[in-house]
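Recall that a protein's primary structure is simply its ordered list of amino acids. Everything else, from secondary elements to tertiary packing, is in principle encoded there. The following example makes that idea concrete.
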Amino acid sequence: MKQILGIGNALVDVMTMINGDSVLEKFTLPKGSMQLVDKAKSEMVKSETVNFNRNLASGGSAANTIHGLAMLGVKTGFIGSIGKDELGDFFENDMKYAGINTMLSRRNSVTGTAVALISPDSERTFATHLGAAVELDAADLDPEDFNGYDILYLEGYLIFNKSLVETACQIAKEKKMKIALDLASYNVVESRIDDFKEIVEKYVDIVFANEEEAKSFTGMGPEEALNHISQFCEVAVIKVGSEGSWVKRGEEIIKIGTIKVNLKDTTGAGDLYASGFLYGYARNQNLEICGQYGSVLAGHVIEIVGARMHHDKWKEIRTIVSEISKPE
């Protein structure tokens, strides 16, 4: 089975159940978006929501995906940057506990946090202070750390440091690795559309996007966007929420359905879909099986708050996945 290396913003998620959208309006946070905020605004949001139910989990888009892959038994690694603080320790220990090979730089800045504000309708809005996470730089990448891995997984949030993304992609290509990229968030795509297009066209083999991200990237609806993006990569994946997902490779197009779930929080749905899909890809499964794996993981994670499922739930998922699997 192929081994997968992820690079992303190492964050600690502060999962917060809010009782309405007034807090979003107060801090000018567009519902459903990921907004980068400074340390002061991050602390203000945390203070304003201190009386709501909340919990902590190691997070960041790529870290969520790599964690999911590790829980499925894939050999994984993660490169990121954290602070020399308790939250940094929390992040590292949580990743190592899942069996991930962590390659983390320690900074003097605070560990980044993503305050996930979960509305009553289960939509989540992120106020993200990157802190030490954003200090990861191209110079921190050691080609030796890429040895033994077959797939590089990148989160689109890294596009704000284009040289980091380009260097990672160049190292991966030199080592004959496949490169997978998740487009991250529609507003991030809009703000860096030219950079995204360049990276995708030059380096990327697998593109993951949801409906809004695909529209921001192409100006098109899901099916048209699928056809357009697939011109530049080996596999294009468009996730369309409760309607499932579309997957295209060459002339092959597959429509993947969803599983029946009790929706609680959409945090991590896209990240865990990527975990499932890449698990199938790493095992040389066909596109339909890959997509089904993705749907199973995405469906289960939205039944909990946050992107970290308990071991009992993972045991259930592994059983379901094994029943879907076909011989390699």
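The mean pLDDT is 93. The two ends are 10 Å apart (CA to CA).
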